[in-house]
Structure formats: structure tokens, C-alpha cells
Design brief:
heterotrimer, A mainly alpha (312), B mainly alpha (365), C alpha/beta (518), B: mainly alpha, 72% helix, C: alpha/beta, Rossmann fold, six-stranded mixed β-sheet, 20 strands, globular
Chain lengths: 312, 365, 518
């Protein structure tokens, strides 16, 4: 049971961070379907730090790895920013390309690095056993991960940012009615960049969190298994509001956690379902939830529409 | 020169060419960074693909590329057909998986002949596409997100189902030619053109015919008129009394059927087997996105762009694996997809350039 | 006022020229606004008023000409510069974020903040309440824009300018969305503001309003500056001649109507609203007969759009029945209604009326493409027939475009797009023609021809239902007027007997009759 809670919380943290990223980006008017790719790149950035930092204090390790994930996520999100904000590119297409590119590029990069270190090593794996321990505090068998804390802080910060802060107010205006924002002298481009970069930072963090969730070795060929998209579903279910997103993340986290822990529940084991059923669970739940919540969606009105200075 | 450039088709071709060249250049630069000494050769090998082999083997190798190009063409048709209607069917990847599941299971477990297996695959793909369509039409669920979710559901379901027809010693399904030869697609003598490579089957002419049919449907028929109107302006389509929900569902059903057929045309050659422990959705459907956009979203363009994408993907195995990994091809093709986002901008720049130079010419006269 | 000004003029725009590809929107235009005056800017649609204001507001940069504030030359590169110079604007289409509160909208872009950009809303609220009391601009700072009336939205826009201490206030066609009574109120507010020393630019094409409120009036026509006159020294006729360049016959020529049997019978129709939980159309009943034009008048947003959606099948009815030509079409599909004789000229030609990326010929068959004339038995399009048909419509209805039938609809002017839609809908030979704001955005000449076509349809024995927001159109074109207010029909008027004032009272909900269903 403790294990289930632990996994629920850590997966919810992943979903929460990434969904908040998507939420900020969409509030600025840009649909970020490249979150999946941003997660991969963030994870790569963090993993590289964990691998190269070696022995250091836990504090430094956690901080530097997170920073690396944030920075690499932000850097990668620039691909979306350039294409969507300045070149009116199809945001779905660009997001898809970013997802494919991230996995391919990360694989090529890690393999090259591994091969350079050891000519016989052609794998795309990075190990971070000792580093992972530094992220975790063991409380009577419950593995508390610092990312759980980070996720909670992120909800609070995003909430304050969107509803109590000048930048947030302006950013949301750009996602709802960019012409109105422009007419009072707000730079729509700047605000949309802000949204995209924040989503890059949160997506990158989420990616690092994901590879630290249950394992100490990551194979970059695998990507992040649709978690970027699950996060978008969490965002839709959460109606683009940070607090509701937090709740939605917990629900989805629970179903994802089941596939890691169902063997610990005699009741579930006795049902004798194939393991793949539990693997599918989050995706099935997601579909059902979307089917019931998409009709009355309150998406930002101008999301996905390139900003055209001329139109009024 | 200017006259040629004014043609929309030429513009689309040039734009795609620019995307390809930049994509290859970036691939080359990445290799340079990893190891400068072999980057040029390896990039060339990616571009050469089968030409890298000795002349005697070239045709046979080309045959293997052809065998994989056909499903890719169908996947890109699947993508572009739905895109014309304003739907981004990223679920093509999962519909392809469903097709693989249906055709392999029917072939291995039930011993069906090749045609029924193929039809079964088409139905399976169409059904999965239909679910996305229903969700979109009646519940307003974004087709990209539902598509991704169904991709994973299809993958895990397929892994479970096909595990019942796999070899006990490996995670792979049985060889079709050992269990049920009748499920293999007939080669109809086409293999003899490709060094007797029996992976080359009637899939080739069949795919080309399907591409032409899709082109005719989109450009010459009432259905195409309706679907493209819906894609361009769904409000106007509704105003004109077109059955919107029916069209959305029909589109995704056809799109899914194409993806299902794609899988059948690959797995029923016996060239590939399903690995029942695979943890990611096969990339065929996603590569279809690259091919569709690179081909200028035109069914005939898709034939050539698909061949190119498959060509460099297969070429990836000829990089110097002492330093590089074959996934460099994936990097190149995803960079190309990314650049396709700029195609509109490239075309607009060309048009501006033409207008400018015409103005100059007009001023001179 | 004891203030000393360096110059007679608050703002001057001198010899402004602004070109767009293929068109000179502003050609050497000069506009001088005095301190504390209300200055009207008059011109037809497309005369260049909006472009000129966009230049003043920093949304566009002029190629030639200078702008002076208090006699000093200034550069305005973006709305921030305009705001710094004390220039504010109420746009024709309000620039308000629907899901934000009134307060958030007012402070947006000029927010009072503490450290790290945290908003100080309490401070803002004080200032807004004070301003709204000073100028008599009633608003509820905590209401969301989507929940308040158009009038309150406009007051929010005015407060936005006052909140920024703007001295120069631009009103872009502010009366288009208001009832006659609300217009009165606005005029008073404008006069108050001018009396407080604010300088006001009032953009309009409504002569009566200009005569009532403005001190001076500058006229533009087809991008050119025509002249500036003192309103007390001029007449409506003179202004109109300046605006159009010729004397226009505002009156529509038509014979008395000769109504026949009922073609469209609307019985107790109720339609839900998309914007709020109340019904947009409540228990509406009326009839339209063969050979008459019935007009639904009303202020925008009183349920007219939803009523049309219900009639044409774009939205389902909550309750009620629609009988067309004796046939119950309440549950019929859009297609069924269309083929049984209903034509619909939609309110928004870009949203509903056209597929902009299709060539003109494909747009011409949008309602009939499935007929045997255009589609063969096995589903192939008959391109030759389509081309011939489209060429004929272009010829007959004088639709002008660059390349005829193959011109992409997107590349056509708004007026010709509208003509193409009207050609398509009329040539379908409907029994019932539903025309929603068919003259929106057209110039005077085109308006005349549309009105003639509506009358011709009537005289051919069709039933015409006209939905209009323009008072002139409402008074001139129809044979009967039904006034809609808050989703209900509140009055039936005879255009020959009623006055604009009476119409206004009904439109504002100040007067209502029990309307009987005959």
C-alpha cells in the first residue's frame, strides 16, 4: 500500500509538472504538443549531470541536475517558439517533429557518448544509481522524492503567477485575445515566448522526474512512453486551472502506479489479468475521462492560432 | 525560369528539396561533432543506401527498401487523407499496429489465406480509426491525444494477443512461411525484377493503385469536395448541409483502413515479424507524417517522399557503427518534419521573390 | 479651463500617406484635433478611417507625413507610445478579454504592482470606483466581461482610457452596438468628457449623431481628405454629399406588397444560447407570407443570430415548430431544408458563407454540388458544368474577381464575396430567403443593388426574412418589422407608420406589445 502511494505521488509529480508546463504555454496561446520531446531532452540533461557529477553532496546534486533539466528543456522548447510564434507553423506538426527528434537525437547522442567511452558499448543507456539515491529520503520504507516537493511548489508558483502576478495576467490575455493585449501595448510575441519557455522548463523537470521515478538506469531509445500526452490530458481534465490539474494528476498517477505495484495486492493478483492490462490502464482511463470532459472544454480562446499583427 | 517557378507544384517540390537538403546537412553536422573523420562517408552511405552494396546485390537490397516503402506510402496516405479534412491522425501508428495484429493473428492462429488476412487487417485499422472518429465527432476529444492513447492501447493489446502465436524460445511471432504459406502475399513475378527478392510482392502495384485512387477521390469526386470543404472551413461545410460527424468518422475510418493495409503489406511478406515484448509503437506510422508533409500532402508526391524517407532510414544501417548509430536517419527525417512546418513560409518567400522580380521586369519595360 | 496649451491643437496628423500592396489606404490626409473639442471623422466603409486611426495608435507606420502633439513632432511606433502621449481608443470591436473581470481588463497593460510584479488590485479598484463616479460610468469591477451587457462593456473601454489618464480619446463607431437610448447616454458622456478638457475623435458614418454631438467634422472618401467643416454651419445633405461624392437616394423604390399564403410559419420557437445558460430565443412565433419582406430588427445580441440558427438548422430547437410551405421542418437536416426551398445568406460570410481556399466556382455550388447537374451518378464532379454554371452567375450578378471562376475566394474583395453568396442563394430559386445583415460591410452602391434584389425576390412571390441591425435598412426595405429584444419579439411595426424613435423604444425594451400570432 505504501508502495502504491509512493508511486502514485511520484508519477503524479511528473504529470503535474508537465501538465503545468502545458497549461502555461496554452494560456499564452501556444499549444505545446512537443512536451513529450521536451521531457526526453530534460531527462537527458539531468542524466548527463548525474552521470558526470560523480561524488558530491546530495544538495548540490539535486540542484544542479534539476537546473540542467530546466535549462535543456527551455533550450529545446525554443524549436517550438521559433516555429510557432514567428513562422506561423502548424503547431501540431512541429510538436510531433520535436517528439520524434528528441528520442532520435538523444539515442544518437548517448550511443556516441557510450561508444566513445568504450568502443564495445553501443547501448543508449545512462546509469545513475548513486545519484538517484540523493533524490530520495527514506521515511520508514516510504521513499520520499524531492520532486514531490518540487511539484507542490510548482503548483503554488504557477497559481500565483497566473492569478496574482502582472506577467501572468498579461500572458493569459495573449492566449484569450491577443489583439486586446496588443492594443494596450503588451508584446504578444514576448508573452508567448514566456509561455513556451516556462513550459520547456517544467517539461524538462518533469522528464528528469520521470526517469528517476522507479529506476536507476534509463534507455533513451524508449522515450517517455506518451507521458507528455498524458500530461496534456491531465491539463484538459484540469480545465487549464492549476489546482484542478493537481487533482487530475493524482488520479492519473494512481492508475500509472498500479502497473508498477499491482503484484503487491493479492486482490488484484487473484483476478489474474495479464500485466499489459495494467500497462494500458492510464491510457484507457485517459480516453474515458476525455470523452466525458472535452465537450465543455474551456480552452484559451486563441490557442493554436498564430498571432497576426494585421488582423483585428 | 520565373514561369516555371510560378507553378504551385514546382514550388512545393522546391520547398521539399530545401527541407531535405537542410535535414541532411544537419545530420552531417551531428556526425561531424561525434567524430569528424568518418562523417562525410557515413552521410554519403545514408544517402546511397542500397547503392552501397556491390552491383550484383543492389537490386535485391533495393527490393528490401521497396518492401518497406509500400507500407510507408500507405501510412503517409493515411496521414494526408485525414489532414486534408483538417484532422491530424497521429493514431495512424496505432491503426498500423492493429492491422499487424489482425493480419498476423489470422495468418498464424486461424490459417487464413492472404486476401482474408489482408481484409481483416484493413477492418482492424478502420475500427481503431473509427474510435478516434467517434470520440472526435460526438465527444469533441482532440484527435491527437486520443490517437496517442489508442496507439499505446493498441500496442499492449497486440503484444498480449500475438504472444499466443509466438515462438516459445523468442519474443517473436512464428514465421508465416513455416506455419501458413498461403498467408504470404503473392509475388506475381515482380520479385524477379529485384534479384528474386521475394519480399517484393503484389504490394507494389497495389500500393501505387491505392495512391492513385486516393488522389482521384480527393480531387475529382463529390466526396473529396465535401471532405476538403470540411477541412478548410468546417462551419461552411455545416452551413452547406454536409454531414459533419459522418465525414469526420468516415475520414478516420478510411485513414485507419489505409494504415491497417500498410501493416498487412509488410508483415505478410514475411520480411518482418512482431516482437511481443516491444515497448514502443513502431515508427512506421510516425515516419508517415514525414513522408506526407515532405510529399507536399499530395498522394502522388507521397510515393516519392516515402521512398526517400525509407531509403535514408535503411541507409542508416550503413553508417560506420564504430562511432555512429543508425538512428541518425531518424534524426534526419524528424528534422525534415520540423522543417516542413516552415514550408508555407518558404513558399511565401518564393512568391514574394517572384512578385518582386516581376515588378523589376515591369519597371524596365 | 485655465490650462495653458503650447498649441491650439491637441493632436495633428499632417499629410499622412499609408500604402498597402495594391492600394493607397490614406492619401495625403490631414486631421487636426483642438483641445477640448469633439471632432467627428466621417467616411464610408473603406474610406480609410480605420487605417488613419491605426496610424495614430501606432498599429501601422505611415510612409509619409508627420504627427504632432501640442505642436511637437512625435513618433508613434506602437500602442505604448500612443499611450505615453495620452492617446486612448475605444475600438469598434471591443478589445476586452471575455473571461477576465472588468477590473482586470481596465488595468491590463498598466497594472499597479508591488515587488516582483505582484498585482495590487485594491489600489486599482479605488481608482476605478473614483473614476466611474466622477464621470457617471457605472460598472461592476468584479463582473466578468462575458456576463455583462454591451453597454457596460463599452463603459469598461472608456474607463480603460480614463484609468490611463488619456487626454485624447478616440471612439471608433461607438454607437453601432447600442440602442437609441444608450446612444443618447453615450453622447452625454462624450460631452461631459469634452467639458472636462478631454479632446475627442468620434469616428462614424451616421450623420445625425455627428450633427448632434460634434463641434467639427472631417470627411474622408476613398482614402482621400475631402475637407473639414463646422457642424453648426453645415447640413446633413452637405455632409452626405461630401462623404459619397454624389447625392444618394437613401430610399428604396418599391411597390406596395401583395402578400399571398403563409410560406414560413414559426411557432413558439425556443433556442438555447451558447454563451450563457438562459435560452437565447424564447417562445418566438411569427409568419412570413409569399410576396412580403419581413424584417427582424433589434440590437445585436438579442437572439437574432440564434433564431436564424434555429430556422436554418445550424442549431437544434429546444422547443417549438417550424412549418415551411406546409411541411414540418422542425427536425429536418440543414440539407433537407435547403433542398425544400430555403436559402440562407449568412451573417458571417467568412465563417459560414464561403470556403475561402476554394476557387469561386466551387463556392458557387456549395449548396447544390450534389445535384445531378454537378455530380455524376457514381460520384464524380462534372467540372465542365460547374465552370459553365459559375461563369453564368458571375455574368448575371456582376461578381468581379481577378481570374473569374478560378479565383480563390480569399483573393476577392468583401463586397464581391457577398455578391457571390447572394448570387448562389438567389439562383437556387428558393421559396423562403433568409438574409442576415446582407449589406454588412458593403459600400453605398452595393447596398442599393442588394436591396433591389431583395425586393425583386419579393415581387417574384418569394417570402423574404431580413435580419438587420441598420436602422435605415429596417425602415426602408421591409413590409413589416418585428422587433426582437432579449430573445423575444416585443413588437410588430409598419415601417410606413412608425418612426425611428418608436422603433428605438422597442429595441431598447422600453416598450412592448402583446404580439399576436395571426
Amino acid at each position: 500500500m505504501l508502495l502504491l502511494i509512493q508511486y502514485t505521488l511520484i508519477f503524479a509529480s511528473v504529470l503535474l509538472l508537465v501538465a503545468l508546463g502545458g497549461c502555461v504555454s496554452e494560456h499564452s496561446g501556444v499549444i505545446n504538443l512537443g512536451l513529450e520531446g521536451i521531457m526526453v531532452v530534460g531527462a537527458l540533461g539531468g542524466a548527463l549531470v548525474m552521470r558526470s557529477l560523480g561524488t558530491t553532496s546530495a544538495f548540490v546534486m539535486v540542484l544542479v541536475a534539476m537546473l540542467a533539466a530546466i535549462l535543456s528543456g527551455m533550450l529545446y522548447s525554443c524549436l517550438l517558439g521559433v516555429a510557432a510564434i514567428h513562422f506561423n507553423a502548424d503547431q501540431t506538426l512541429v510538436g510531433t517533429a520535436m517528439n520524434l527528434l528528441a528520442t532520435a537525437a538523444a539515442t544518437v547522442f548517448v550511443k556516441a557518448m557510450n561508444t566513445a567511452a568504450n568502443p564495445d558499448n553501443h547501448s543508449s543507456e545512462i546509469e545513475y544509481i548513486s545519484a538517484r539515491k540523493m533524490f530520495i529520503v527514506n521515511i520508514n520504507g516510504f521513499e520520499f522524492n524531492w520532486f514531490m516537493m518540487v511539484a507542490i511548489i510548482a503548483v503554488v508558483l504557477v497559481y500565483i503567477f497566473l492569478y496574482k502576478n502582472r506577467l501572468g495576467l498579461r500572458l493569459m490575455a495573449c492566449g484569450e485575445h491577443p489583439q486586446a493585449a496588443a492594443s494596450v501595448g503588451i508584446s504578444v510575441y514576448k508573452m508567448r515566448w514566456t509561455g513556451v519557455l516556462i513550459s520547456g522548463a517544467l517539461g524538462g523537470l518533469g522528464g528528469l522526474c520521470y526517469i528517476l521515478a522507479g529506476v536507476s538506469i534509463w534507455k533513451f531509445e524508449n522515450g517517455v512512453a506518451g507521458f507528455g500526452f498524458l500530461a496534456l490530458a491531465v491539463m484538459i481534465f484540469g480545465q487549464w486551472k492549476p489546482t484542478r490539474i493537481a487533482l487530475a494528476a493524482l488520479i492519473f498517477g494512481l492508475f500509472r502506479a498500479l502497473s508498477n505495484t499491482y503484484t503487491g495486492f493479492p486482490f488484484l493478483v487473484s483476478m489474474n489479468l495479464p500485466g499489459n492490462v495494467y500497462n494500458m490502464m492510464p491510457y484507457i482511463v485517459c480516453l474515458i475521462v476525455l470523452a466525458f470532459t472535452s465537450k465543455a472544454s474551456r480552452a484559451p480562446k486563441a490557442e493554436g492560432i498564430p498571432y497576426d499583427k494585421g488582423s483585428r | 525560369m520565373r514561369k516555371v517557378l510560378k507553378n504551385e507544384g514546382v514550388q512545393a517540390f522546391l520547398a521539399s528539396l530545401i527541407c531535405i537538403l537542410i535535414g541532411l546537412l544537419i545530420g552531417y553536422i551531428v556526425l561531424l561533432f561525434i567524430n569528424p573523420s568518418g562523417a562525410g562517408d557515413s552521410t554519403l552511405n545514408v544517402i546511397k543506401n542500397f547503392l552501397y552494396k556491390k552491383p550484383a546485390r543492389q537490386m535485391k537490397e533495393l527490393g528490401n527498401t521497396m518492401a518497406k516503402t509500400m507500407p510507408l506510402i500507405l501510412c503517409s496516405l493515411s496521414i494526408l487523407f485525414s489532414y486534408k479534412v483538417g484532422l491530424f491522425n497521429i493514431g495512424t501508428a496505432g491503426q498500423y499496429v492493429a492491422g499487424a495484429c489482425a493480419s498476423l493473428y489470422a495468418a498464424l492462429a486461424w490459417g487464413w489465406g492472404w486476401l482474408p488476412c489482408m481484409l481483416f487487417a484493413i477492418v482492424a485499422g478502420a475500427l481503431l480509426g473509427g474510435i478516434t472518429g467517434l470520440l472526435k465527432a460526438y465527444c469533441n476529444v482532440n484527435e491527437v491525444i486520443s490517437g496517442i492513447m489508442l496507439n499505446w492501447i493498441a500496442l499492449y493489446t497486440t503484444n498480449t494477443i500475438l504472444a499466443t502465436v509466438k515462438e516459445s524460445t523468442s519474443p517473436y511471432t512464428h514465421y508465416i512461411d513455416k506455419v501458413n504459406k498461403s498467408a504470404l502475399l503473392p509475388t506475381a513475378g515482380i520479385d524477379s525484377l529485384f534479384g528474386n527478392n521475394n519480399n517484393v510482392t503484389i504490394a507494389v502495384p497495389l500500393t501505387i493503385i491505392v495512391a492513385i485512387v486516393i488522389w482521384i477521390i480527393l480531387s475529382k469526386t463529390k466526396l473529396g469536395y465535401e471532405l476538403k470543404a470540411t477541412g478548410n472551413n468546417k462551419n461552411a461545410a455545416k452551413y452547406a448541409g454536409m454531414a459533419q460527424n459522418r465525414n469526420i468518422i468516415l475520414t478516420l475510418v478510411i485513414s485507419g483502413a489505409l494504415a491497417g493495409l500498410a501493416a498487412s503489406l509488410l508483415y505478410q511478406t514475411g520480411y518482418m515479424r512482431w516482437e511481443c515484448t516491444q515497448s514502443s509503437v513502431p515508427s512506421m506510422g510516425f515516419n508517415g507524417i514525414a513522408a506526407a508533409f515532405l510529399g507536399g500532402l499530395h498522394p502522388i508526391g507521397a510515393i516519392f517522399s516515402s521512398f526517400f524517407i525509407q531509403h535514408i532510414t535503411d541507409g542508416g544501417q550503413y553508417v560506420n557503427t564504430n562511432f555512429y548509430s543508425p538512428q541518425i536517419s531518424d534524426v534526419i527525417s524528424s528534422v525534415i518534419i520540423y522543417l516542413c512546418g516552415f514550408v508555407l513560409f518558404i513558399k511565401l518567400t518564393m512568391k514574394k521573390w517572384i512578385a518582386k522580380s516581376e515588378e523589376k521586369k515591369g519597371a524596365k519595360n | 479651463m485655465g490650462e495653458e496649451h503650447k498649441s491650439e491643437y491637441a493632436i495633428e496628423m499632417l499629410h499622412i500617406t499609408k500604402r498597402f500592396p495594391g492600394i493607397i489606404a490614406n492619401d495625403d490626409i490631414t486631421l487636426q484635433l483642438r483641445h477640448g473639442e469633439i471632432h467627428a471623422l466621417l467616411g464610408e466603409n473603406g474610406a480609410g478611417k480605420s487605417t488613419l486611426m491605426s496610424v495614430l495608435f501606432g498599429l501601422y507606420q505611415a510612409e509619409e507625413g508627420t504627427i504632432k502633439k501640442d505642436g511637437q513632432e512625435v513618433k508613434i511606433n506602437d500602442p505604448n507610445d500612443a499611450n505615453d502621449l495620452g492617446i486612448g481608443m475605444v475600438h469598434q470591436h471591443f478589445k476586452l478579454v471575455e473571461c477576465f473581470t472588468v477590473l482586470d481588463n481596465i488595468i491590463l497593460g498598466d497594472e499597479p504592482v508591488g515587488s516582483i510584479g505582484m498585482l495590487k488590485k485594491a489600489e486599482a479598484r479605488k481608482k476605478i470606483v473614483a473614476l466611474s463616479e466622477k464621470y457617471g460610468l457605472q460598472v461592476n469591477p468584479d463582473a466578468k466581461i462575458e456576463d455583462i451587457t454591451v453597454g457596460m462593456q463599452q463603459r469598461t473601454e472608456i474607463l480603460k482610457m480614463l484609468y490611463r489618464d488619456n487626454e485624447i480619446l478616440i471612439f471608433d463607431e461607438p454607437t453601432a452596438v447600442l440602442t437609441p437610448q444608450e446612444i443618447e447616454e453615450l453622447m452625454q458622456i462624450m460631452k461631459n468628457l469634452a467639458a472636462e478638457g478631454k479632446s475627442i475623435l468620434f469616428i462614424s458614418h451616421k450623420l445625425a449623431e455627428i450633427m448632434a454631438v460634434a463641434d467639427r467634422c472631417s470627411v474622408l472618401r476613398k482614402g482621400k481628405y475631402i475637407g473639414t467643416v463646422e457642424t453648426k454651419n453645415t447640413t446633413m445633405e452637405e455632409l452626405s454629399a461630401m462623404m459619397v461624392g454624389r447625392n444618394v437616394n437613401f430610399h428604396v423604390e418599391k411597390q406596395p406588397a401583395n402578400p399571398g399564403e403563409v410560406l414560413l410559419d414559426v411557432q413558439h420557437v425556443t433556442v438555447a444560447s451558447k454563451a450563457h445558460s438562459n435560452n437565447a430565443v424564447k417562445d418566438v412565433s411569427f409568419q412570413v407570407r409569399r410576396g412580403e419582406i419581413v424584417c427582424i430588427a433589434g440590437i445585436d445580441g438579442n437572439g437574432q443570430s440564434e433564431l436564424v440558427y434555429g430556422l436554418t438548422g445550424l442549431e437544434p430547437l429546444v422547443s417549438g415548430n417550424i412549418i415551411m410551405d406546409g411541411q414540418d421542418i422542425t427536425k429536418a437536416s440543414i440539407r433537407k431544408r435547403s433542398v425544400s426551398g430555403m436559402s440562407h445568406i449568412p451573417e458571417d460570410r467568412h465563417k459560414h458563407g464561403l470556403v475561402l481556399d476554394y476557387p469561386l466556382e466551387f463556392n458557387m455550388i456549395l449548396q447544390t454540388y450534389f445535384k445531378p447537374q454537378f455530380t455524376s451518378k457514381i460520384g464524380f464532379l462534372r467540372r465542365k458544368n460547374i465552370r459553365e454554371y459559375s461563369d453564368r452567375l458571375i455574368e448575371e450578378y456582376d461578381v468581379r474577381s481577378g481570374q473569374g471562376s478560378v479565383t480563390p475566394a480569399r483573393a476577392m474583395s468583401g463586397g464581391n464575396q457577398q455578391k457571390a453568396i447572394i448570387a448562389r442563394e438567389i439562383d437556387k430559386q428558393p421559396e423562403v430567403l433568409v438574409a442576415v445583415q446582407p449589406t454588412r460591410g458593403l459600400d453605398v452602391g452595393a447596398i442599393e443593388s442588394v436591396h433591389k434584389q431583395l425586393v425583386a425576390q419579393r415581387d417574384a412571390g418569394k417570402a423574404v426574412l431580413l435580419i438587420s441591425l441598420e436602422l435605415d435598412e429596417v425602415m426602408d426595405v421591409p413590409d413589416r418589422i418585428l422587433v426582437m429584444y432579449e430573445g423575444e419579439i416585443v413588437g410588430e411595426l409598419d415601417p410606413k407608420q412608425t418612426t425611428q424613435e418608436e422603433l428605438g423604444l422597442y429595441m431598447a425594451g422600453a416598450k412592448r406589445d402583446e404580439v399576436k400570432v395571426n
